[in-house]
Design brief:
47% helix; alpha/beta; 6-stranded parallel sheet; 8 strands; two-stranded antiparallel ribbon
Length: 364
């Protein structure tokens, strides 16, 4: 897999140059900009030159219904730009295939329900500009899109962007607590893909680069936002890890638990990682030790989670646990049966009871 090219911009002129260099004869009426609501002013200021483009905001995790506005496109997009968090980037990936594989919400839903695998090359060029170091969507070959409350997704090499654009002006509104909160998702992606039985030499190389940048940002610079570029690069490598390995049970389970409880993605991963980590210490301590070395840490443990990320205050695990139990609409066994994907990629997986125990039995 060829990683996206990476560029840094800091002005509307540089954005225009980057876009025009991507498409030889750019038709501005066939440019689509997908962004999070918080990036609205940024889009107005930096894309005034593309006033004919279609601009659509994605506020929440994208669902099939969010694509209603694209059904009015007269022609398939020539260039798709995603700006903001992972939600907007995932939506932009789907839009890049609009008019070729699917042209309506119904066709998109059908693609998702039949596995979401895309093997065709896309016609539109795809540029992604993350505003937050988190999921690594800007470099992965997947896009999470829901049908109702059911999380599904698209998968395929064509979902990898052509270019990733960094602009520090997108980060100026961040606070350290928010940056650290979402950085835990980077950590989880790097750790899970390193532990996974589907890991490859390529994914391990990406993990080494990602862990090195994340640990340097967290420790050497004391998580200074002026050095946030390092966190962004760690997120990029985490996305490449996802494209060449696989996640483990915390992410698989959260795809079911999150919508069922209204719990945020990072809260769910944090909660599930507590018990999963204990299982990993039992089943694959050598892989944890390998990841710890990459993270420039002598060992991993729950203490590291709290100290490294200062993610949520000391009682976070028990509070999130109570939140889960108060919101669970079904039994642990029923929810466990809804968890899907390559579960055997996780060396801690010994059957559906493993999943049920992670949902129900957690350290407080």
């Amino acid at each position: 897999m060829r990683p996206p090219e990476r560029f840094t911009v800091s002005s509307a002129v540089q954005w225009q140059e980057t876009c025009r260099s991507s498409v030889g004869d750019l038709d501005l009426s066939r440019v689509v900009i997908v962004h999070t609501p918080s990036a609205y002013r940024y889009v107005l200021e930096n894309f005034a030159w593309a006033e004919k483009s279609l601009k659509i905001a994605i506020a929440n995790e994208p669902s099939v219904e969010d694509f209603a506005g694209f059904e009015k496109l007269a022609s398939p997009p020539q260039l798709v730009i995603g700006i903001g968090g992972g939600k907007a980037l995932d939506a932009a990936k789907a839009v890049a295939y609009w008019g070729s594989i699917f042209s309506s919400r119904q066709e998109l839903a059908q693609t998702l329900l039949t596995g979401g695998k895309i093997e065709q090359a896309r016609n539109a060029k795809l540029i992604l500009s993350p505003s937050l170091a988190s999921s690594g969507s800007e470099a992965s070959k997947a896009a999470i899109i829901s049908i109702g409350s059911h999380k599904t997704g698209l998968r395929g090499i064509g979902l990898v962007a052509d270019k990733v654009v960094y602009d520090y002006r997108l980060w100026t509104s961040l606070t350290m607590p928010v940056a650290l909160h979402y950085a835990f998702d980077i950590f989880a992606h790097l750790l899970e893909t390193t532990v996974s039985l589907r890991r490859t030499e390529q994914s391990l190389a990406y993990a080494r680069d990602g862990f090195a940048r994340l640990s340097h940002w967290l420790f050497a610079q004391d998580a200074d936002l002026t050095q946030y570029q390092e966190a962004m690069e760690a997120s990029f490598y985490a996305g490449l890890c996802l494209a060449t390995s696989s996640t483990c049970l915390p992410h698989r389970i959260q795809y079911v638990i999150g919508p069922a409880t209204g719990t945020t993605h990072v809260e769910g991963i944090w909660y599930l990682s507590q018990g999963w980590f204990a299982l990993a210490e039992k089943h694959c301590p050598d892989r944890l030790a390998e990841a710890a070395t990459m993270f420039h840490s002598e060992s991993f443990g729950l203490k590291n989670f709290h100290e490294a990320f200062r993610l949520i205050h000391q009682n976070s695990a028990s509070q999130v646990r109570r939140s889960f139990f108060s919101k669970l609409p079904k039994s642990g066994q029923q929810l466990a049966n809804e968890v899907s994907g390559d579960l055997a990629a996780d060396p801690t997986f010994e059957g559906m009871a493993t999943i049920e125990n992670l949902i129900i039995h957690q350290p407080s």
